[in-house]
Amino acid sequence: MPKCLLLLLLTLLTFPAASYQKTLPSVRCGTHLIRIGDSLSALKRACGKPLAIDSAGRQGKDYSYQFGRSGAITLIRVKQHRVTRIVMVR
Which of 30, 56, 64, 74 could form a disulfide with 52 if both were Cys (CB 3.0 to 4.6 A apart)? Predict the structure, then answer.
């Protein structure tokens, strides 16, 4: 099982009553803002190394990050070196 899916599953099982998904137009990495359409190099420069990188098939790759202390996981989908989707999973 890919690391990202395992991490997501553990998060959902740990907090079943409070789990949800929210699609976002952007996400803050420190002092940088990553938006849909930004390049992969901008994502890596702003957010650093992800917790995991998983294949999303033809949809691209999902980069998993955990920002702050909330425990939420942010999945940033990249296709053809561009951010195409940002989803926060709590």
Answer: 64
Task: Answer whether 0.85 is exceeded by the pTM.
Answer: no
Judged by DSSP in three states, 70 sits in coil
Contacts of 12 (CB under 8 A, 6+ apart): 19, 89
pLDDT tier at 8, thresholds 50, 70, 90: low
Between CA 62 and CA 50 the distance in angstroms is 10
pLDDT: which is higher, 3 or 50: 50
| CA-angle at 12, arms to 28 and 75, nearest 5° | 30
How far is 43 from 1, CA to CA, in rounded Å?
Answer: 25
What CA–CA distances, in Å, run from 41 to 5, 18, 38? 24, 33, 8
Q: Record the tokens describing residue 60, joined without a space.
A: 């691209």
